[in-house]
């Protein structure tokens, strides 16, 4: 169930803008902050501190030309079609792409439309995607995106011009618009799995992939797709969570609403609190351990955190 606990919300939902929805102008205004972030500053983290990222694996390689085979050439680079046509072995030559591809994978499934403090997780995801997009464009990288929900997904092919960035901002605004979707855990898992499978098919090796989600309902199939992506790309996982999802508030009864349904939470039971806390910690530890094994960089961001500071401290900042 998505919604806001009224007694815990830092700002009134009546404010609307910036809390439960975000406008294009707000994302455009993030340009200066985004350009001060450096996506090239990510380096190996101490494995003792949890998840970390290897040095960038490099840009993708694209075919340039073919020439006759020479002693010492890689056999795996033989162009068999030209070899068969000419009767002489030929080798494929590649050149490094001038621009790196940065792809955003942004989750707008129903649990993302929730907050008890700060703003909806969906709004944090949109703002973070916009900041990272501005940073990528300032660095001359090509920016692509895949946005998804239970209803499907939409892709943006990598581009480095301003039109591509404006198109992204339009989609981030559109997908972040509050809506009510009734979905089961299985449906949410399927939506995430399908979006990751699609990313595997369209992604180019050597890309920087930045995933923004609460990473709930990820099943074994989703983890398999992530493992495949991590082999030839750099992955940054930005986990967006609400404080209530990590720890229940002080003892009392609270009501959660998505605008239609109501759910009562009683945090006075010590056994319920303990079970809730253990389950939350187990989920976080599982994600942390998975990212550590796959050498993915994991960032945690609460809905009431200073988003720019979180990204600056974890992605790196440079003066411009």
Structure, described:
- By secondary structure, the protein is α/β, with parallel strands linked by helices.
- It folds into two domains: 6-57 and 99-315, Rossmann fold (3-Layer(aba) Sandwich), CATH 3.40.50.410; 61-96, no CATH class.
- Helices cover 37% and strands 21% of the residues.
- It is built from ten helices and ten strands.
- The protein has helices at 24-28, 31-35, 80-86, 121-138, 162-175, 185-202, 220-232, 243-246, 270-294, 307-315, and strands at 61-68, 90-96, 101-107, 142-149, 152-159, 208-213, 234-241, 253-257, 262-266, 297-302.
- Strands 5-4-3-6-7-10 form a six-stranded mixed β-sheet, with helices on both faces. Strands 1-2 form a two-stranded antiparallel sheet.
- α4 runs antiparallel to α5 and α6 (185-202) runs parallel beside α7 (220-232).
- It is elongated.
- Residues 4-15 and 42-56 have low confidence and may be disordered.
Rounded Rg: 22 Å
- CATH overall fold name of the largest domain: Rossmann fold
Q: Oligomerization state of this entry?
A: single chain
Largest sheet: 6 strands, mixed
Estimated structural class: alpha/beta
What percent of residues adopt helix (DSSP H or I)? 25-40%
Q: Hey, roughly how much beta strand do the residues contain?
A: 15-25%
Number of domains: 2
Mean pLDDT: 82
Number of separate strands: 10
CATH arch. level architecture of the largest domain: 3-Layer(aba) Sandwich
The outline comes out as elongated
Order of helices and strands: HHEHEEHEEHHEHEHEEHEH
What's the CATH class label of the largest domain? Alpha Beta
Which strand order do you get reading across the main beta sheet?
Answer: 5-4-3-6-7-10
Helices, by number, come to 10
Distance between the termini: 43 Å
For the record, what is the CATH homologous superfamily label of the largest domain?
von Willebrand factor, type A domain
């Amino acid at each position: 169930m998505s919604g806001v606990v009224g007694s815990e919300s830092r700002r009134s939902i009546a404010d609307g803008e910036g809390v439960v929805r975000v406008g294009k102008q707000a994302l455009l205004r993030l340009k200066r902050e985004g350009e001060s972030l450096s996506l090239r500053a990510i380096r190996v983290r101490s494995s003792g501190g949890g998840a970390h990222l290897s040095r960038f694996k490099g840009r993708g390689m694209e075919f340039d030309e073919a020439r006759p085979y020479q002693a010492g050439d890689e056999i795996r680079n033989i162009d068999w079609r030209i070899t068969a046509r000419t009767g002489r072995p030929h080798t494929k030559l590649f050149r490094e792409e001038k621009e790196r591809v940065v792809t955003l994978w942004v989750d707008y499934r129903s649990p993302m439309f929730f907050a008890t403090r700060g703003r909806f997780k969906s709004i944090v995801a949109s703002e973070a995607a916009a900041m990272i997009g501005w940073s990528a464009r300032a660095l001359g990288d090509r920016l692509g995106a895949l946005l998804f929900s239970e209803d499907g997904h939409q892709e943006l092919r990598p581009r480095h011009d301003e039109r591509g960035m404006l198109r992204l901002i339009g989609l981030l605004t559109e997908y972040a618009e509050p809506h009510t979707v009734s979905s089961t855990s299985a449906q949410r898992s399927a939506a995430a799995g399908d979006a990751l499978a699609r990313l595997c098919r369209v992604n180019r090796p050597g890309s920087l992939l930045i995933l923004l989600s609460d990473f709930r309902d990820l099943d074994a199939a989703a983890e398999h797709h992530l493992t495949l992506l991590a082999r030839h790309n750099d992955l940054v996982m930005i986990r967006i969570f609400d404080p209530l999802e990590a720890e229940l508030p002080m003892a009392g009864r609270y009501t959660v609403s998505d605008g239609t349904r109501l759910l009562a939470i009683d945090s006075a039971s010590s056994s319920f609190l303990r079970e809730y806390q253990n389950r939350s910690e187990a989920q976080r530890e599982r994600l942390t351990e998975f990212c550590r094994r796959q050498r993915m960089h994991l960032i945690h961001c609460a809905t009431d955190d200073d988003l720019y500071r979180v990204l600056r401290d974890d992605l790196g900042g440079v003066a411009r």
